[in-house]
Amino acid sequence: MQGRVVLITGGTGALGSAVAQGALEAGATAVVTYRDARDIDALKGRVPAAARDRLHGAQADVTDGVSVGRLVTEVTARHGRLDVLVNAVGGFAGGDLLGTDERGWDGMLSLNLRSVYLCCRAALPAMLGAGRGRIINVASRSVVPPTGGFIAYTVAKSGVIALTQALAQEVRGRGITVNAVLPSTMDTEANRRAMPGSDRKGWVTPESVARAILFLASDDAADVTGTLLAV
Predict the structure, then answer these.
(1) Is 153 a catalytic residue?
(2) Total structural domains in the chain?
């Protein structure tokens, strides 16, 4: 990925950080979104000194169209290109239909689905202009097939899957691939705190999911599009 520019939403989270570090190791420039400057400072502290000049933070609200438009404009103006978009931002909330109010419903769809829609729509013109690009969206293995108990999250992540497959068809043959990674429960500090008594035997590491994302971003996956890669 030498010389490529990779934009990672949610880039200071557990998965986003792993993707950013992997992209940097592969020779790419990584632009990660953040809301708190302390998070980007912490990420820079975990990156080898030789790669820090290729790591850039961008403060953005990826659920807001104006903010996302400004983000992509800044990336392309600074770097002259945008090769890879990784939509890693997201969040989880439980609750069945009767236990999910409108605020909770809207919040899950905004964070998990609207953000993907906005970022794909903003990034696509630069990729179409270049005649190449990679878009990788993060959905969830737990929504295939849909199960009960976290209905807003399920609908949002199912929407990410549908958007991925539809967009892959829209840009087929134009040098752009669109794929989704479907992680099972990831072994993160946040998940360990939220589920302290859970059996973690089947959990996957953020680094494992990041490797799948980076494969889909690579030239080796040039003919892979519309795929749902479960990890």
Answers:
(1) yes
(2) 1
